[in-house]
Design a protein that fits this description.
8-stranded antiparallel β-sheet, 31 strands, single chain, 8-stranded parallel barrel, 685 residues, alpha/beta
């Protein structure tokens, strides 16, 4: 087996030949919808590669998502074995076959993959090197359960781990640069998996590695500038004596806040954790580009339940070209709500960046460690994600592999249950050029970064959060402390936002829930902005909300009449946003519904009301503002005859079974099975 450092001596810049666009990936003069299928070459017999890839192409995929386990290819530090004549670990041979079949490659080199691999695909020498390991608040390795055995997580803050990753990614990029498009199939590389931060994700579970603490102190120095400013904000500074100053500050090791001033230390700690992840990704991106992938698109993935982790789109967006989300779950109303939030925010974020809203992992099947999912669950999640804004996706898994159940293509290339469904869906999406359609989202619910951080530090479930059955919102998981402010700082903000989500849903008004740190781009084209004010709000978010309000957007605040700044000082809302801002001091469904009703009338908001109340609809329009696709979602447990007001009279065809129906007097009637989604395509008159 040959040891590879480089496959050719010349690296050609390909920045002009591969472009990311709102409609997908631009390759030369063509734009392709980013529909990828995940294939684990190392889990398949080499003789089955061609059959599996041909089936991937046959059911409508042009991109192949290819995880690359570091542990399978490393022979010694900095030296990789990527090619062999017969072995199933012949990555170069697999990539050449992908290219031969006219497919394109999205590489996933890690450093971590999950994929139910031992150590998440990291080499043992990295996993068991204490210098690379994340530390608990007691300076112990942070252990997580995993197949086949428990292992310690690596530290994003560790200098040793970062050095190892940079060396590995640089060597990989150098070796594979000759296979970049158009000479080869590689058009994009996805960094990491996001899985690290979903394990032991409580803010006090990790990372207290000495290098992380050093970076934390540097973060505070950059944020506050002078030790006197930090002392004024915190009140008392343990360890920051005259000799140490910033170098003596210790991070909080458990939630012990009793006053708003105490909370600042904890909010700064979780804010640092977000910055740490972004900084690590920038280092990894730099290694790939320096190694020869300068013209290749780079992407990253938000993990499932990202709001409970330190991984944010804003932090990752500074390191890569595209940030995707993770889509999956059961066919249920709770999952519909989660996907509406996730994919609505993704759609707004992508529109502002002119990139495709991408589901980097769209589950088909399940692992032995997760709850069983059948085909109904798979298609409910997939089509609901498309309904709420997703335009590109990676089918995970497309081909059967070890420790995974339910892929539509077998390990020998046989078509399994579900393959025909994906073929029909891909064909329908291509036929209507779904990647070019848009969903208008005139209403934005802005969640300030401080609100999300408060939910993390006040999470009563702590390290049990990833497996908790008690719900995801602050009302279900957060402590009810008010810290003397007279209101529940985390719970009331979440409840205020939820009351508007439910009122908007009930009247069929399209909206998106967006993160405050994604402003002002997330506020583009917003007619109405709703922002909870129970917790503190940073100066930048206040300014951006004010600018959007002055530009004409309606602004509704609540439930606290005064705004709290980043140091929990009270600001009069009228002075911050002007007298035209609407302030609601109640958290109840009736008040939210009344506000929504007023906005529909005064702002002429679109409204796609549905009956019965288990049914929801989304519409997707073309450049001429004509509705071309309608998704109708039934998240209830019973079959229904649904009525949806869309304001258009037309003939509609079901994308999956080709049955037809017609909307009359602006009302579309359709029969839906329990917990199902229909994609209805407008037919020519």
């Amino acid at each position: 087996m040959m040891l590879h450092r480089r496959l050719c001596s010349v690296t050609v810049s390909r920045a002009a030949s591969v472009q990311i666009q709102r409609g997908g990936i631009g390759l030369g003069d063509e734009t392709h919808a980013l529909h990828a299928a995940c294939v684990h070459y190392f889990d398949l017999e080499r003789g089955d590669w061609r059959a599996c890839l041909e089936r991937v192409r046959a059911i409508g995929f042009r991109f192949v998502d290819i995880p690359i386990p570091w542990r399978h290819h490393e022979r010694r530090a900095g030296e990789l074995a990527l090619s062999s004549e017969r072995g199933k670990h012949d990555l170069v041979g697999f990539l050449k076959l992908v290219h031969e079949l006219g497919l394109f490659a999205v590489l996933r080199p890690g450093p971590t993959l999950n994929a139910e691999l031992t150590g998440y695909g990291l080499p043992d020498r990295i996993v068991w090197d204490r210098a690379c390991q994340a530390r608990s608040h007691r300076d112990n390795p942070v252990m997580v359960p995993g197949l086949v055995r428990m292992f310690p997580l690596p530290s994003y803050g560790s200098d040793a781990f970062r050095d190892e990753v940079r060396q590995y990614l640089g060597a990989l990029a150098e070796a594979l640069s000759s296979l970049l498009y158009p000479q080869g199939p590689i058009v994009m590389v996805q960094l990491d998996h996001g899985a690290l931060m979903t394990q032991r994700c409580g803010p006090y579970e990790q990372d207290y590695h000495p290098d992380s603490i050093r970076r934390y102190r540097a973060h505070l120095r950059q944020q506050y500038g002078r030790i006197e400013a930090l002392s004024e904000a915190y009140g008392t500074l343990e360890g920051a004596d005259e000799g140490h100053r910033f170098t003596g500050i210790e991070p909080p090791r458990r939630f012990d806040a009793r006053t708003p001033e105490d909370l600042l230390r904890h909010l700064d700690w979780v804010g640092f954790q977000e910055a740490l992840v972004g900084d690590a990704y920038r280092a990894f991106s730099g290694a790939l580009r320096d190694g020869g992938f300068e013209g290749c698109l780079l992407s990253a993935q938000l993990p499932a339940g990202a709001d409970r982790t330190a991984v944010t789109a804003a932090a990752l967006g500074g390191a890569v070209d595209l940030v995707g989300v993770t889509v999956g779950g059961a066919a249920s109303e709770s999952n519909r709500v989660n996907l509406a939030r996730l994919c609505g925010g993704l759609a707004v974020r992508s529109m502002s960046g002119d990139i495709p809203p991408y589901a980097a992992e769209m589950a088909s099947g399940f692992t032995p460690l997760s709850s069983p999912r059948d085909g109904q669950d798979t298609m409910f999640s997939a089509m609901t994600a498309l309904a709420y804004g997703v335009r590109g996706f990676n089918l995970h898994m497309a081909v059967e592999r070890n420790r995974f159940i339910g892929a539509p293509i077998g390990a020998h290339g046989d078509l399994e249950a579900g393959a025909d469904t994906w073929k029909k869906l891909n064909a329908a999406l291509d036929r209507v050029k779904f990647r070019t359609l848009r969903r208008e989202l005139p209403v934005r619910i802005v969640m300030p970064a401080m609100a999300r951080r408060l939910m993390r530090v006040m999470d009563a479930l702590g390290s049990a959060a990833p497996v908790s059955p008690f719900g995801q919102g602050a009302r279900a998981r957060c402590l009810e402390n008010d810290f003397g402010l007279g209101h529940r700082v985390a719970i009331d903000a979440d409840t205020f936002a939820l009351s508007f989500e439910q009122a908007l849903d009930a009247r069929g008004v399209p909206y998106a829930r967006v993160a405050g740190e994604e402003c002002p781009q997330a506020l583009d084209a917003a007619a109405w902005i709703i922002c909870p004010t129970a917790g503190p709000m940073g100066k930048e978010v206040r300014q951006q909300l004010s600018e959007a309000h002055e530009a004409g957007a309606r602004l509704t605040l609540g439930p606290i009449p005064n705004i709290l700044d980043e140091r929990f000082r009270s600001l009069a809302a009228g002075k911050v946003f002007g007298p035209r801002a609407e302030s609601l001091d109640k958290i109840d469904p009736a008040s939210a519904d009344a506000a929504v009703a007023r906005a529909i009338e005064q702002l002429e908001l679109p409204s796609y009301a549905c009956d019965p109340d288990t049914v929801h609809a989304t519409v997707h329009i073309d450049e001429a503002n004509e509705i071309q696709v309608v998704f109708v979602i039934n998240s209830g447990p019973s079959d229904v005859a649904a009525r949806t007001t869309i304001g258009v009279d037309a003939q509609w065809e079901d994308a999956m079974d080709q049955s037809t129906t017609r909307s009359e007097e602006g009302v579309l009637e359709a029969h839906l099975r329990a917990r199902s989604v229909r994609m209805l395509i407008r037919r020519e008159a």
